[in-house]
Amino acid sequence: MPGPSWRYGDLILVAGSGHPQLAEEIAECLGVPLLPREIIVFPNENISFGCAADRM
After folding, report:
1. Could you count the other beta carbons within 10 Å of the beta carbon of residue 41?
2. Potential cystine with 27: which of 18, 21, 34, 48 (Cβ 3.0-4.6 Å)?
C-alpha cells in the first residue's frame, strides 16, 4: 500500500540506529515505509550510512 503523497512525491522514513523499534512504530503510525539502511562503523570510529534512497 503506497504511503501519503505530498507535493514532491511520496513520504518515506529514514532512520539511524538509535532506536530501531521506535522508527518502525512511527513508520507504521504514519502508514509509510521505513527504508532499509546499512550502517558501518569503522575501527577508527568513522561511520558510513547508506540507504535505498541513495540508489533511487
Report:
1. 10
2. 34
CB atoms closer than 10 angstroms to residue 27: 19
Could you identify the residue written with the cell 562503523? Answer: 41
Element (H, E) at 21: helix 20-30
Show the DSSP H helices in the chain as ranges.
Answer: 20-30
For residue 54, pLDDT over 80 is answered with no
Q: Which amino acid, residue 6? A: W
Q: Does the predicted TM-score (pTM) go above 0.85?
A: no
Instruction: Give the tens place of pLDDT for each residue, 26-39.
Output: 999 988 888 888 88
